[in-house]
């Protein structure tokens, strides 16, 4: 296709060269002269090269880019764009009609420019404000209100959830599924599997182990009857990053994203995609501690400050034992004094009882 367009561009360039030469009102060249013949050949050859070189960049490549962008649009965005374009063209035609009485060349240049500007402008405006337009149409009774407030698709098999690589590597997903708190259809696109395989093939031992664990978790989920797992070949050709592909696919299907990635979490929320974060879930279900609560812990190491000891609960909660530096290796009863919530998790400060 690209070669055909280039050949057509070369022929078109030759035709333009001949047309321009014929309309330039220059005296006819004496083709019996070598210099004149070289000049004509150079003139036509130059236009052939120009047409051969640039025609794909003003036809094929823009068309491919436009098709790729249209493929990433959701149904709501596509309908909004088409409706806005039609309304813009109608407005542009009505505004540009009186301009047909203007002198040459404005009588055709200004109407065409007005129609193009209003059509493209209304198309962009309706896509950007589609949610407000939907609310206005629902208020007017012209559009049926949705039956659910969940942004994820709710079908007979439950919501659709796209799974990020970080969650598969984490390893806790199988336990969450087994607990019954996660249900529906987990979608793991092939490009996510390819990223796991790429990590599993790394020379670094730690990264290789993480990638293999992600592939093992995926194999376990496929055999679990409590959850449905899809591994489609769908992809977004216009995006190169895995995170951007997941967001685009989730927007297309109205699905959610399951991840532990902080950056993906923030970007997806900006695009109004529902995010299920396992780290947030883990922090939410950790037991709440109040001052004077009693705990039984084993001090396993010295703390950062002199005299402090460090212990951990079964769920991974860090316990800082004030004055417990000499109790390393011992199981003691401690009393909670204060709780500090950090980005990394929850820290509980306590003192040995008695």
How would you describe this structure to a colleague?
- The chain has 4 domains: 2-58, no CATH class; 61-139, no CATH class; 160-283, Rossmann fold (3-Layer(aba) Sandwich); 294-352, OB fold (Dihydrolipoamide Acetyltransferase, E2P) (Beta Barrel), CATH 2.40.50.140.
- The chain has 13 helices and 11 strands.
- It has helices at residues 2-22, 34-58, 60-72, 75-96, 106-128, 130-139, 165-170, 173-179, 190-200, 205-223, 242-253, 262-270, 278-284; strands spanning 160-163, 185-187, 228-230, 256-259, 275-277, 294-298, 301-302, 309-312, 318-321, 331-341, 346-352.
- The protein has a 6-stranded mixed sheet with strand order 6-10-11-9-8-7, with no helix packed on it. It has a 5-stranded parallel sheet with strand order 3-2-1-4-5.
- Helix 9 (190-200) packs antiparallel against helix 10 (205-223).
- The longest helix has 25 residues, at 34-58.
- It starts with a helix and ends with a strand.
Which short descriptors sum up this protein?
354 residues, alpha/beta, Rossmann fold, 6-stranded mixed beta sheet, 5-stranded parallel beta sheet, 52% helix
């Amino acid at each position: 296709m690209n070669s055909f367009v280039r050949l057509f561009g070369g022929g078109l360039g030759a035709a333009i060269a001949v047309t321009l030469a014929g309309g330039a009102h220059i005296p006819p060249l004496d083709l019996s002269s070598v210099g004149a013949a070289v000049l004509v050949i150079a003139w036509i050859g130059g236009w052939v090269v120009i047409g051969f070189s640039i025609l794909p960049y003003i036809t094929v490549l823009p068309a491919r880019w436009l098709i790729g962008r249209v493929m990433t649009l959701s149904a709501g965005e596509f309908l909004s764009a088409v409706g806005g374009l039609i309304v813009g063209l109608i407005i542009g035609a009505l505004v540009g009609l009186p301009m047909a009485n203007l002198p040459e060349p404005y009588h055709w240049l200004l109407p065409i420019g007005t129609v193009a500007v209003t059509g493209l402008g209304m198309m962009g405006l309706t896509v950007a404000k589609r949610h407000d337009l939907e609310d206005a149409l629902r208020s007017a009774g012209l559009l049926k209100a949705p039956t659910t407030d969940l942004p994820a698709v709710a079908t007979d098999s439950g919501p659709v959830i796209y799974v990020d690589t970080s969650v598969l590597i984490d390893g806790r997903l199988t336990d969450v599924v087994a607990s019954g708190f996660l249900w529906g259809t987990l979608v793991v696109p092939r490009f996510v599997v390819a990223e796991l395989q790429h990590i599993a093939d790394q020379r670094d031992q730690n990264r290789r182990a993480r990638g293999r664990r992600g592939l093992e978790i995926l194999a376990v989920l496929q055999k679990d009857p409590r959850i449905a797992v899809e591994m489609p070949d769908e992809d977004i050709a216009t995006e190169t990053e895995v995170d951007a592909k997941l967001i685009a696919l989730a927007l297309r299907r109205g699905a959610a994203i399951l991840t532990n990635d902080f950056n993906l979490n923030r970007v997806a929320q900006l695009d109004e995609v529902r995010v299920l974060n396992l780290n947030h879930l883990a922090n939410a279900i950790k037991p709440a501690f109040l001052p004077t609560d009693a705990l039984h812990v084993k001090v396993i190491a010295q703390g950062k400050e002199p005299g402090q000891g460090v212990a951990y609960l079964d769920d991974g909660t860090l316990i800082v034992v004030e004055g417990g530096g000499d109790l390393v290796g011992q199981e003691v009863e401690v009393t909670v004094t204060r709780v500090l919530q950090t980005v990394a998790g929850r820290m509980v400060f306590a003192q040995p009882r008695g």
